[in-house]
Amino acid sequence: MNRILLVEDDAAIVAGLTEFLTREGYAVKCAAGQSDALALLEKETFDLVLLDVALADGNGFSLCSAVKRSHGLPVIFLTASGDEHSTVTGFELGADDYIAKPFRPRELVFRIKNVLRLRGESGGVVQLGNVTVDTRNGTAERNGRDLYLSALEYRLLLVFLNHRGAVLSRARLLEAVWDIAGDFVNDNTLTVYIKRLREKIEEDPQNPTVIKTVRGLGYKVDKE
Q: What is the pLDDT of residues 163-206, one digit of tens each?
């Protein structure tokens, strides 16, 4: 059974998520702020941290840094901050994923499973052709050079990594990234971000071999 530390100071959200995640088979411990969370991390073992940015005691960004530095655990941010600046900050600090409130509980469970699967399979490092993605630190490199992905580009890359071998429709991709850029993500915007991502990760963006187009259906990344 995977153990989750939920760091959130909204009692209603804590109660609802604890009940839902427990029904889904997770063991959940809760902390209202940074000091309580750090105390729990010193005493107990966890597999993942769900972390709000705005806390009554401390803040999620500094806690994320501490969690990554001292414990190396995967972190998913839960926050009402839907702006890209907050998202970028979270990923720069090593967050593994980011989901904006209000969110659907099933979507959260889906993301938890994906983060844990990636961590379990690769120790946080995933190879995609010449691209190395470190999900523990939230970085991506090609041939050893940092790609400097934006928050939405990184999230889009994670979606492909989490569905290797599957064809992803444009509708599915839009659904997966809407919570980072909100209303700015539409079909045309998705085209732009896929183009930008390909320019950074492909050897020849005009003839992509990593993110492949499946005509009439969507896009896919090969399993291996």
A: 888 898 988 888 766 644 444 456 778 888 899 999 999 999 99
Specify whether 113 is located in the same domain as 139.
no
CA 125 to chain centre: 14
Tell me which amino acid residue 5 is.
Answer: L
Helix, coil or strand: residue 211:
coil
* 115 and 18 within one domain: yes
Separation between Cα atoms, residue 133 and residue 72, nearest integer Å: 16
Domain total in the chain: 2
Q: What is the pLDDT of residues 61-107, one digit of tens each?
A: 889 988 888 888 889 988 775 556 666 777 777 788 888 777 888 88
Domain boundary among 121, 144, 166: 121
Run of H or E residues at 130: none
Kindly state the tokens that stand for 34: 């940074």
Please report where in the chains the tokens 């995640």 appear, as a residue.
Answer: 21
